[in-house]
Write a structure and sequence with these properties.
This protein is an alpha/beta fold and 332 residues long. It is built from ten helices and eleven strands.
Length: 332
């Protein structure tokens, strides 16, 4: 597909493990750069996939900052490290004394839209976990509080706040589909939820489409990670509270966290990095603290009791096994 005026994109990696880039590279048979080209995005620079290095990269930044090169989309992966003492010197551009804290703010001021790729760039993520010696934060949020490196008042040249494609790492489709919508001019502030996440994936819960939903319906619970039952009651699963269509689209060709046997840790939400033990459900008087979204406690307790009393023996046995031990039977 030919585009008369491709959209220029710069991708920065701040306090990052590189996992968000690894996720993006998985999208599409033709590869990440070609996928961008298909919907009219020109990759000015990416630290992992671009050929330009050294002075060539600095020249790209200079042209953008001077207004000689238009910057349509700025993507930032990783937390912004503001330490020590607000200098940002914990994270400097290689070969220079320029900090990523300063460079990000300068480029964001020139960008038509700014995208936080991953929960680190969105909310602070793993580097912001206690004790946070680097004073890490997201672009527009510190945890769930609107602040961050760019500040609460930041708006891009197109009038948008930071678009938070959260996740650790985000699904590759979330990243590329967001960039596609932005490049096509089909994205507005109303397409974001209260934490700046695109509603096309933030309007779902990780629980939707989970392969363990039959066990959830009957509250037939697994007690150890190798078992097939629902992991909400005992093993810390937050899929009924976590935003994302994780179980409705394949990751790397198939599967998801819960499908692989691991509890959802709600990595698309601020603060997930502060949980001390992701595979234990916190409880008060035997009742899970984290109840499903929109579910009053009294309703949950009543429905859970009814569900458990009606659990088929087949479901009960399979929930506490590492494989199917009893198959559905036709009623006579």
């Amino acid at each position: 597909m030919q585009h008369d005026s491709p959209k220029n994109l710069i991708w920065l990696q701040a306090g990052s493990c590189g996992g968000c880039t690894m996720a993006a590279l998985e999208h599409g048979a033709s590869g990440f750069p070609r996928e961008l080209e298909k919907f009219g995005v020109k990759l000015l620079w990416h630290p992992s996939v671009s050929e330009e290095t050294g002075e060539e990269v600095l020249e790209i930044f200079r042209r953008v900052e001077n207004g000689d090169e238009k910057l349509d989309i700025l993507c930032v992966e990783g937390s912004i490290l503001r330490g020590p003492h607000g200098t940002g010197k914990f994270n400097r551009l290689s070969g220079t004394d320029r900090t990523l804290f300063d460079l990000t703010r300068s480029l964001a001021a020139q960008a038509d839209v700014c995208v936080a790729v991953g929960s680190c760039a969105a909310f602070g993520g793993i580097p912001a976990g206690d004790p946070d010696p680097t004073d890490a934060c997201g672009l527009q949020y510190e945890g769930a509080v609107a602040a961050g490196a760019l500040g609460l008042a930041y708006r891009s040249r197109n009038g948008l706040p930071v678009v938070n494609v959260s996740g650790c790492a985000p699904h590759p489709g979330w990243i590329l589909e967001t960039l596609q919508a932005l490049a096509a001019g089909e994205f507005a502030a109303g397409d974001l939820d209260a934490l700046g996440r695109p509603k096309f994936f933030a309007g779902h819960l990780a629980h939707h489409g989970c392969s363990r939903n039959e066990f959830y319906e009957f509250k037939a619970s697994a007690r150890v990670l190798s078992e097939r039952g629902c992991m909400m009651e005992h093993l810390g699963c937050k899929a009924t509270q976590a935003i994302g269509d994780c179980n409705q689209r394949a990751w790397n060709g198939g599967g998801s966290c819960t499908h692989a046997g691991f509890a959802c840790i709600s990595c698309t939400s601020p603060g997930f990095e502060s949980i001390r033990n992701h595979h234990v459900t916190p409880k008060v008087a035997g009742i899970p603290v984290g109840l499903p979204l929109d579910m009053p406690k009294a309703w949950f307790m009543t429905l859970a009791a009814l569900s458990k009393s009606a659990t088929p023996e087949r479901v009960r046995k399979n929930a506490e096994a590492d494989r199917i031990v009893e198959h559905p039977k036709r009623h006579k």
